[in-house]
Write a structure and sequence with these properties.
Distance between the termini: 32 Å
Strand order of the largest sheet: 1-2
Structural class: alpha+beta
Helix content: 40-55%
CATH topology: Nucleotidyltransferase, domain 5
Number of helices: 4
Largest sheet: 2 strands, antiparallel
Radius of gyration: 15 Å
CATH architecture: 2-Layer Sandwich
Strand content: 5-15%
Length: about 100
């Protein structure tokens, strides 16, 4: 499996993960790879966005997030429409966001 992280500044980071990822390996991965890279780029001003993978929802992972003050954006149960994404971001980050439509 390949784990990948994309950040707003265009930085991509990925790591090849052998086997399945469980709560312990996900926490280790966050602590050793993701969080340090994010903090170098964004200090303490950032949010983590995850999909609905079961490993993201485990009690140990939630405790880790809380212990280290990692703010996680709520994700959708189904594929979202663009207006739902906007509402989600405004609810989590505030309504002062500037929106630039992407041309089709």
């Amino acid at each position: 499996m390949v784990w990948m992280m994309a950040m707003p500044n265009g930085l991509l980071s990925f790591k090849v993960v052998t086997g399945n990822m469980n709560s312990e390996s996900y926490i280790k991965h966050l602590a050793q790879y993701a969080v340090p890279i994010i903090k170098i780029n964004y200090k303490d001003n950032w949010y983590l966005q995850e999909d609905n993978a079961p490993v993201h929802k485990g009690r140990k992972v939630q405790d880790f997030m809380k212990k280290f003050g990692i703010h996680v954006l709520e994700w959708f149960k189904k594929k979202p429409k663009s207006e739902h994404c906007r509402g989600l971001l405004e609810n989590n980050l505030g309504s002062g966001l500037r929106w630039t439509p992407i041309p089709k």
